[in-house]
Amino acid sequence: SRKEMDAKIDAIRDFAAIGDFFDRPVRMYSSGMQMRLAFAVATSLEPDILVIDEVLAVGDEDFQKKCLKKMRELRDSRVTVLFVSHILPIVRYHCKNAILLHNGNILKYGKSEEAVDAYYKEISFKKVERESEKESDESLLGNNQDTQEAVINGVQFFGVDGKERETFTTREKITARIFYSSHRPLKKPSISFALFDAEDRIISAHTTHFDGYSIDCLDGEGYFDFCVDDLVLLEGHFKVSISISDSEGLQKYDWHQKKYTLKVVNGPEKAFGVVYLPHHWCGPNARVNT
């Protein structure tokens, strides 16, 4: 009702954060402003069911974080939230269950991690022509293979047993296999691997250039392995960024920013924090409990 809206107008204004445009006709808004206002209005009315369709595709990082925080508050207050998105890390971390749709058909229904895994496998590792999904594929992979000199085709994670998976244990050996395609010979390229925690804080970043691993030329299709001999991460969900650039990293041919996820569970080691430091204790009066 109008009375309810008047009572909530200040909260809506603050959340939408569109400045003086708030008092102007909606026809003067950009599409992003319209989405901001619509989300602010819908969430302020304390709905029983909230449908959010790609709203996080607009707005800056601060607005996206506000939306996610509001979604968590609604979820915790037992509001049913139907979230439609191609931003897979958000689906994985913020949704309990998920449905993977293709041309109106349900391909997968279950836990969000299972649905996200099915989506990655569907588009990243199967060379199947799916013209109807081309636009969503490019949205996920962040590239256009018709115009880029080199593209990242996907990343697979393997354990020491050679089996592909996404969950690993602290102190385990892990290999990240980076698949690429080069549309012309590229001399002296550099591959990068960067790891972020769930709060988007960088944990570690490495490049072939800085590591002294020289790549003479990229030509055609292939892959490189980023091998970790001792995974010192403690339990948590992590994001991985991959890029292909020139030798100095100044020109990026392709960049998958935080497109891939890695789950780590604790092994027998007992510790707190983000990483496990290989260590031992010693002292004149110390002994090891067995």
TrEMBL record:
Instruction: List the GO molecular function terms.
Output: ATP binding
> InterPro entries, alphabetically?
Bact_Polysacc_Export_ATP-bd, P-loop_NTPase, Wzt_C
Q: Keyword annotations for this protein?
A: ATP-binding, Nucleotide-binding
Ranges for domain Wzt C-terminal come to: 145-276
Q: Which residues form a coiled coil?
A: none
Checking Pfam families in the record gives: Wzt_C
Q: What is the official name of this protein in its record? A: ABC transporter ATP-binding protein
Q: What is the scientific name of the source organism?
A: Candidatus Abyssobacteria bacterium SURF_17
